[in-house]
Write a structure and sequence with these properties.
The radius of gyration is 50 Å and the shape is rod-shaped. By secondary structure, the protein is an alpha+beta fold. The longest helix is centred in the last third of the chain and has 44 residues, at 146-189. A 4-stranded antiparallel sheet has the order 2-3-1-4, sandwiched between helices. A two-stranded antiparallel ribbon has the order 5-6. It has helices at residues 2-19, 34-38, 47-65, 102-111, 113-119, 146-189, 212-220, and strands at residues 28-32, 75-78, 85-90, 127-129, 193-195, 198-200. It starts with a helix and ends with a helix. It has a domain at 13-129: Alpha-Beta Plaits (2-Layer Sandwich), CATH 3.30.70. Helices cover 50% and strands 11% of the residues.
């Protein structure tokens, strides 16, 4: 009985070794950069982390196919290196000697990529499935609607234009009044009158003005 059990386990191990190997059919290579992602807080990759990885892949397969047949034992890892990289396959739970088509595994990984990354505190760049393209993160929506931002910008431009027109109008009005006042003052200082087409100085009515002709006549006569 024991011999039969050992023989069965040996056959299963050989079969699994044939299923999980580099570049095998439906196999995927994984490369993990824990030190790059976490720095001094990096954790060691050990059997517990491998178990968690198998559990996350099994979780993705169960959720993707809506079936509860995939178990952790169906996820096989091989060629694990210290840097950390390895290959994995998912075996068919009904037969356990064949692998699940790679397209199904890829679709499941892509659908739950963020959950897998979060389990290891990594992202698409530090937890790489080399044959599986990275999923695009949903676009980040701004807290303020775009139309409101555009409306605010346009409103600010309109207000700025109105303020500019008001300020420039006030400045022009002040400049015009100043020029008018200066011109009036200048005209008062140089005010002259025209008499018979000849410019004459304005008469000082209080002080009077002596006519030079009569003054000359008065000097020719002596006083009585």
């Amino acid at each position: 009985m024991l011999r039969a059990l050992l023989l069965t386990l040996s056959v299963v191990a050989i079969a699994h070794a044939e299923l999980c190997k580099p570049d095998a059919q439906n196999a995927f290579k994984v490369r993990i950069s824990i030190k790059t992602a976490l720095g001094d807080n990096a954790y060691a990759w050990d059997a517990n982390e491998e178990y968690l990885f198998k559990a996350m892949v099994a979780f993705a397969m169960r959720r993707y196919s809506s079936k509860s047949t995939t178990q952790i034992s169906n996820v096989l890892l091989c060629n694990v290196t210290d840097r950390v990289s390895f290959w994995f396959v998912v075996t068919d739970s009904s037969k356990n000697v064949t692998t699940v088509p790679g397209s199904e595994v890829e679709a499941a990984i892509r659908m739950y990529r963020n959950r897998i990354n979060s389990a290891f505190l990594l992202n698409d760049k530090t937890l790489q499935f080399l044959k599986i393209t990275s999923t695009l993160s949903p676009p980040v929506e701004p807290s303020t609607p775009v139309w409101l931002i555009v409306f605010g910008v346009v409103l600010c431009l309109i207000v700025a234009g109105i303020v500019f027109l008001i300020v420039s109008g006030i400045q022009k009005h002040k400049k015009k009044n100043k020029e008018s006042t200066e011109r009036d003052n200048l005209e008062e200082k140089v005010e002259v009158t025209l008499e018979n087409g000849i410019p004459c100085e304005a008469l000082d009515l209080k002080a009077g003005h002596i006519n030079g002709v009569f003054a000359a006549d008065d000097e020719r006569f002596t006083s009585l």
